[in-house]
Design brief:
Layout: E1 10-16, E2 21-25, E3 32-33, H1 38-52, H2 68-72, H3 97-111, H4 115-124, E4 145-146, H5 148-159, H6 166-172, E5 182-184, E6 188-190, E7 200-201, E8 219-223, E9 227-232, E10 237-243, H7 249-267
Antiparallel strand pairs: 1-2, 1-10, 3-4, 5-6, 7-8, 8-9, 9-10
Helix pairs in contact: 1-3, 1-4
Length: about 270
C-alpha cells in the first residue's frame, strides 16, 4: 500500500510492546522531519521531569490559571501558533504549538538544562534513539528529526514503559478535561476533541487519521510533514510511518485504510 503513496520517500514499521518489529517498509534508518510527532517526545520528557520532581503537573505554567497539565493537554488557552491567550484555561481544546514552546521553556527553567539537551538526556539516550534530535533552539512542538528505527523504540516504550512508572503513562493516555470541543488540525471541529498528556486520544472522533477499526483507546500523533505514530492498546501494537510530503488530501485518503490493513494483519 505504501508503494502507492504519492510521496518521494516513506518508511514504516509495526512494533509490539517487547520491541519486536513485526513488519517494516522502506528506508527505516532515514531521518525525516517529524513536525508535530515531536510533541509526544517532548511530553515524555515533561513526564520524566515530573517523576524526577523537577515539576508538578498542576503547578502554574503558561497563562494565568494554566498549569503544566493544561499545556500538555492543549487546554491552556494559548493560541495555535502565537503566544497570545485566546481562551480561559480549561474551557476549550485549543491545539497550541505555542503551548508546547512555553512548556519547553518551563522545563528548561525548572531543570537548568536547555530543553533540547534535557530531551536528549531524558528520552533519546536512554532509549538508544541515536538518530533523533531536537536542534538547539528548535521548537518542542514541531522541530524534531528522527527515523522509523528510533521511533519504534519510543513506540515500544509507550506500550511497556521503562523510563516512567506505568501509572504515569496510563495517566498520559487518559483524557484530560473530558468533553471539551475543539478543532483537530486537518480534520475540523470535533465535539469531544479528547486529548491526554501530549498525545491525542482517538475515542469516537470522525473523521480521523487512524482507521475505522482502530480502538477508541488508540492514542498518538500525526505531523504536518507527513508523519504519524499510533499505539492501539487493544491490538497490542504500535505503528510508525514517516514520509517527506506534507500532510494533505493524499494522507487523508491513504492513512486510514493503511491502518485498517495493519490491524487486520495483526488480528489474522
Amino acid at each position: 500500500m505504501i508503494e502507492n503513496w504519492p510521496v518521494p520517500h516513506a518508511a514504516a514499521a509495526v512494533v509490539r510492546a517487547d520491541g519486536t518489529v513485526v513488519g517494516s517498509y522502506g528506508p527505516t534508518a532515514r531521518r525525516f522531519p517529524l513536525a508535530s510527532v515531536t510533541k509526544p517526545l517532548a511530553a515524555y520528557a515533561a513526564l520524566v521531569a515530573y517523576e524526577e520532581g523537577a515539576v508538578e503537573l498542576d503547578e502554574p505554567a503558561g497563562p494565568e490559571g494554566s498549569t503544566v497539565r493544561h499545556l500538555l493537554a492543549h487546554t491552556s488557552g494559548l493560541a495555535f501558533d502565537e503566544h497570545r491567550v485566546a481562551n480561559a484555561p480549561g474551557t476549550r481544546r485549543l491545539y497550541s504549538n505555542a503551548g508546547f514552546e512555553v512548556l519547553g521553556d518551563h522545563i528548561a527553567k525548572a531543570t537548568g538544562i536547555a530543553f533540547p539537551d534535557y530531551l536528549r538526556e531524558a528520552v533519546f539516550e536512554p532509549l538508544g534513539m541515536a538518530e533523533t534530535s531536537l536542534p538547539e533552539g528548535g521548537s518542542p512542538a514541531r522541530d524534531g528529526i528522527s527515523t522509523v528505527d528510533d521511533l519504534t523504540r519510543f513506540a515500544a516504550e509507550l506500550q511497556a514503559p521503562r523510563l516512567l512508572d506505568a501509572r504515569t503513562v496510563l495517566e498520559a493516555m487518559t483524557v484530560v478535561h473530558p468533553g471539551l470541543s475543539g478543532v483537530l488540525p486537518g480534520y475540523g471541529f470535533q465535539k469531544s476533541n479528547d486529548w491526554g498528556l501530549g498525545v491525542e486520544i482517538r475515542d469516537a472522533k470522525s473523521p480521523h487519521w487512524t482507521g475505522a477499526s482502530s480502538s477508541p483507546r488508540t492514542f498518538g500523533h500525526f505531523g504536518q510533514s507527513g508523519t504519524f505514530l499510533w499505539v492501539d492498546p487493544d491490538a497490542g501494537a504500535a505503528c510508525v510511518a514517516l514520509a517527506d510530503r506534507d500532510f494533505g488530501p493524499w494522507a487523508v485518503a491513504a492513512w486510514p485504510p493503511f491502518t485498517d490493513a495493519v490491524l487486520a494483519e495483526l488480528s489474522a
